[in-house]
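Reagents: none. Just compute today. Antibiotic biosynthesis monooxygenase.
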Amino acid sequence: MYARSTTLTGAPATIDDGIAHVCDEVMPAITAMPGCMGMSMLADRATGRCIVTSSWRDLAAMRSSADAVRGLRERAASVFGGPPEVHDWEVAVMHRRSESPSGAGCRVTWFRMEPAAVDRVLDAYRSVMVPRMEDYPGFCSVSLFLDREEGLAASAVVFEDRDCMEASRTHARASRDDFARLMKVAIIDADEFDLVLAHLRVPETV
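Predicted 3D structure written out:
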């Protein structure tokens, strides 16, 4: 399966307007497109940074949606007040212990590796990092999105609430840094979000 993420950034004071626009206008339009499986949305209310992700049955379906999605993305960007950043991904890992409840939090970590090392890093992520994350209190799910050509990955861990997410922060940072050192990957960004829309509907891969 594949996914397209769009990062939108606006003023924190207007973020609820942006969330409402995505839920009321963008989601119904995109999920009605052929091959779309679902959508999710993350929101950092402190910075105004949001990530809207759509999941697709296959690469052909995602690519064929590009023109139709572009107009929706431009309208959403006008609501948020900032230019969108778009990235297409392979969904390499999806593992759920439970469905995400209302009030769930999500920690996203972006990292880069040599493209030739992608499969080696992916195997280690599945065998080492996923079991570690399952031990976090309040763990709900983990996913890994991958761009093989660029050697770029985004890891997303969902917790049942922000308290659980914050309680795991120190342990997660140490585990992440240890993994990066051993696998020779570069951590390029990390952020914590509210999971405001959880309908990605990607099947289990682990």
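The two ends are 14 Å apart (CA to CA).
Action item: order primers for follow-up constructs.
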